[in-house]
Specification:
Blueprint lengths: L5 E3 H14 L1 H11 L15 H11 L9 H11 L5 H14 L9 E3 L5 H14 L6 E5 L2 H11 L6 H26 L4 E5 L13 H15 L4 H4 L6
Parallel strand pairs: 1-2, 3-4
Helix pairs in contact: 1-2, 1-4, 5-6, 6-8, 7-8
């Protein structure tokens, strides 16, 4: 698939925040389309939900720091691995999909979203509005220990041990119920669980990363319905 057909929620958030810090057009889009403003306090009652305000107040308890802006809080959540408000995530991904009309009638991958039942409900409504069909939901699963090992190996500053613990807790509390909801709406045949940890080893005993990735890729392609004989390709292909 072309690179622009792989929409990673994490990458969208990080690139949007980075662009908003230097680009007025992006800041205007965040304010007008997503309700996220660098000038508006995240504690402003008329612009934020009571649930969000309570969450931020718990975080700031005892702190003398000035309340963060909405954009500051978004950046903090992404950096610290915290849940961003559902309505913010929904508006950001909606803006991303509505602005990319070329992919509506094509195959594309939405990576890392939705992660809550509310987000799934909103996304399915958006897909219906845009005429986008869901081919398959691929639920890639690994253990907590493997998740930490991979994340800490990629060297991102937001991959701290505490942040990773929070992400795993979030998965248990929110992502699994989201998957269950998608099964209800789409049917269990369109939601596939894929083992994302299938290590292959070289004769020396070291991890063969290419073969490991290929094993997971083949499992994902099988889940998409490709017949096995098309996947029995030479490993160098």
């Amino acid at each position: 698939l072309p690179e622009e057909h792989h929409i990673s929620m994490g990458d969208v958030l990080r690139s949007t925040i980075q662009a908003a810090r230097i680009d007025a057009t992006t800041r205007d889009m965040l304010r007008d389309q997503c309700g996220i403003d660098e000038q508006t306090s995240v504690l402003e009652p008329s612009r934020n939900s009571p649930e969000l305000i309570a969450k931020v107040q718990r975080y700031l308890d005892g702190s003398e720091a000035a309340p963060p802006s909405q954009l500051d809080w978004l950046e903090h959540c992404v950096t610290a691995g915290l849940l961003i408000p559902d309505d913010w995530a929904e508006r950001i991904i909606e803006a991303q999909l509505r602005s990319n009309v070329a992919i509506h009638d094509s195959i594309f991958i939405l990576d890392g979203y939705p992660r809550t039942r509310g987000a799934a409900e909103s996304l399915l409504r958006l897909f219906n509005d845009l005429g986008i069909d869901v081919i398959k939901v691929l639920h890639l699963s690994i253990t907590k220990a493997e998740m930490k090992s991979r994340a800490q190996g990629r060297g991102r500053p937001d991959d701290t041990d505490d942040a990773l613990d929070l992400r795993y807790e979030f998965y248990i509390e929110h992502v699994q119920p989201c998957i269950d909801y998608l099964k209800e709406c789409l049917g269990t045949e369109r939601v596939a669980l894929v083992d994302a940890h299938q290590p292959a080893y070289a004769t020396s005993g070291s991890l063969d990363l290419d073969r490991s990735i290929r094993a997971v890729t083949v499992s994902a392609l099988e889940a998409l319905g490709l017949p096995r004989y098309l996947l029995d390709l030479d490993e160098n292909t």
